[in-house]
Amino acid sequence: MKIKKAAVIGAGVMGAAIAAQLANAGIPVLLLDIVLPDKPDRNFLAKAGIERALKARPAAFMDADRAKLIEVGNLEDDLKKLKDCDWVLEAIIEKLDAKKDLWAKVEAVAKKTAIISSNSSGIPMKLQIEGRSDDFARRFVGAHFFNPPRYLHLLELIPTDKTDPEVLKTLSEFGEKVLGKGVVIANDVPGFIANRIGVYGIVRAMQHMEKYGLTPAEVDQLTGPVSGRANSATFRTADLSGLDIISHVATDMDKATPADEDFTLTDSFKAMVEKGILGDKSGSGFYKKTKDEKGKTKILNLNLKTGEYEDQGKVKVAAVEAVKGKPLAERVQALYTAEGKEGDFMRASMNDGFWYAAKMAGNVSNRIQDIDNALKWGFGWEQGPFETMDSLGVQQVIRNLEAEGRKLPPLLQAMKDSGRDKFYDGSQTVTPAGEPTEYKAPYFIISDLKKDASKVVKKRAGASIVDIGDGVLLVEWHAKMNALGEDQLRAVQDAHKLVQDMGYAGLVLGNQGDNFSAGANLPLILSQAQADEWDELDDAIKQFQQVTTSMRFSPHPTVSAPFNMALGGGCEFSIHADQIVASAELYMGLVEVGVGLIPAGGGTKEMLLRFTDQLHPGQQVGVGLLPAVQRAFELIGTAKVSTSALEARKLGFLRDHDTVVMNKNHVIEGAKRAVLAMAHDYIQPVPRTDIPVMGDAALGALKSALYGMHEGGYITDYDLVVSEQLGRVLSGGTGNNRTAKVSEQHLLDLEREAFLTLLGKKGTQQRIDHMLKTGKPLRN
């Protein structure tokens, strides 16, 4: 079974965004909705859905051009077009009768091999297929995306007892490999996995907040990043989701679940919904955005006692302040055992979550790792509930639950009886019944480095070299933000030597952290500059250039596997690799001008070389070179960062032979395959010595443009200083009034000289210091 074309029925916020994600993956989509009698355009709703997706922020499309893959239509004129679609997904109103009526129409026209799915967040799949043929039921499986579909990794697949296993397998692989989703298999029960447990957590947090006298802002401090949760924490998440939606789901859950699960909403929550205070969609919820007299956005907090919005300033919670900067396990342990009302709240809320997740094992899903993954991928948690219990000690959690008088769910009773203190123990985990079973990482992760260190060949504090099989080595950086320092550079050098000495096929540069690399170690660079350690800095930059360019000029193939942020030096390492296998969600750029520097790890040189090579041969002389110089100057001088790998290709960071993978967990596997594909007949490249440059002619043109921008107020005084240094490198140096040919090393030397010149200036040091203190660029 292959999915080559899809149809989405329902062009609302969710349906249009799902269609956009299909288009992002290169899948042609038919988007249908009803006909509005008062609109002359019968496709009005489908067209409006696409327009909304194009304007959405964060962007629904990775590249606006992908919208061309979506064909719009309506359910009266175009339903017959479903005969050409391999997957039909509905995202219409959450009413069972409407869905059943739609399925009757779809079955009459869809081809007999098409997979049929509902994106319902709560209506049981078995009810939707009542009255349908056995063949239709065999091809039917729930497919519940989370909003926004591009950014939230989770896709819950919900088979019925009639779903063909081959259909489930096909859609699982399509979701993971083509759409880039993290797929979990949920049972056909109310709320499925993530909403069942997640909404329970929000409802119980509301109850405990009022019981212990905390405010929504205080609870969000406790249940946000400090606890390994998303920035939106509890009540900001509620505002984003819509309080009416949470109320609807919680009310349905309360009716459909046993009394001991308690989805009861507080009176204050009900009152907010009754008043139309629904979160972002209504303009206010637990929080409200407003502007001060200077037009600056302010966030007001709702006082639940008075019903008024207040400027509470920056809310600080003592228990949170006490654990900032500590590892996650230490933070969670400290919050779980904290004293006072904050500790009481955290224990009550966390114990609710632990008890409920254990109770749901075998109910919402048959694997505990699917429950952990659903909460991580759907709500942005760093750890799932079972992983968190492991970090606290399962037996301690059990003692705490029993001290509260709770009846242990079967899974926790089995853990107590066995004395096991971890759900995940090396290569084992447990079943919902508490029986040991083999731990299976999601199949698309080539090497679950977080759980298996047995393949580590060499390790430093900030980097590891890992044997990922089939004769391929992986250099994995694991520093904070994967900032580049001595450990990271040495690891690459060590890996090159190991490849040659031990006969490996080649090298992959990648990791399983939060980001590929945020660039150079700025605190170290600033401290050396302030200490006047210029010889040491010169040597360090030479070493950095040698290591980045070694990605190209080695006797074996190298492949970079960037994802999320690949900035500054992280970008420079990648663009020097023989090939890039990039995650579709790639924020890549040479951003050094933001701290008053220019790229000096070969980035400036490489972009000039690439853009010059892309010119027609007749343009690679004299003024014909100027468009390439200008293109590189604009890219680097404005610190452009791609918002996706598709845009990174347009900007020039990715070449034609570089590949894009929708699922970031596939990039290391894809990079390994790329190394093996090149290894057999690999020929070591040699540095170029034939790069045409314009010298003074290019520099003069750039300075003229810069002068106009400065006079117009578009760039600052110090922007002008930095830009002139960048222009000098891209011109190939001064002294040439005609086209000359220079080497890569010549451009690298110019990069290094410009970098050191700027680093010695007060303006650059001020920019670096400001960035380190505020995380924002200084416009001096």
Automatic annotation (TrEMBL):
Database matches in Gene3D superfamilies: 1.10.1040.50, 2-enoyl-CoA Hydratase, Chain A, domain 1 (3.90.226.10), NAD(P)-binding Rossmann-like Domain (3.40.50.720)
Catalysed reaction, written as an equation: a (3S)-3-hydroxyacyl-CoA + NAD(+) = a 3-oxoacyl-CoA + NADH + H(+)
Annotated Pfam families: 3HCDH (PF00725), 3HCDH_N (PF02737), ECH_1 (PF00378)
Keywords: Fatty acid metabolism, Lipid degradation, Lipid metabolism, NAD, Oxidoreductase, Signal
Domain of life: Bacteria
UniProt keyword Ribosomal protein present: no
Endpoints of the signal sequence: 1-25
InterPro entries the record matches: 3-OHacyl-CoA_DH_NAD-bd (IPR006176), 3HC_DH_C (IPR006108), 6-PGluconate_DH-like_C_sf (IPR008927), ClpP/crotonase-like_dom_sf (IPR029045), Enoyl-CoA_hydra/iso (IPR001753), NAD(P)-bd_dom_sf (IPR036291)
Sequence ranges assigned to domain 3-hydroxyacyl-CoA dehydrogenase C-terminal in this UniProt record: 191-288
Coiled-coil segments: none
Domain 3-hydroxyacyl-CoA dehydrogenase NAD binding, first and last residues per copy: 5-188
Pathway where this protein functions: Lipid metabolism; fatty acid beta-oxidation
Protein name (Swiss-Prot/TrEMBL): 3-hydroxyacyl-CoA dehydrogenase
Species this chain originates from: Deinococcus xinjiangensis
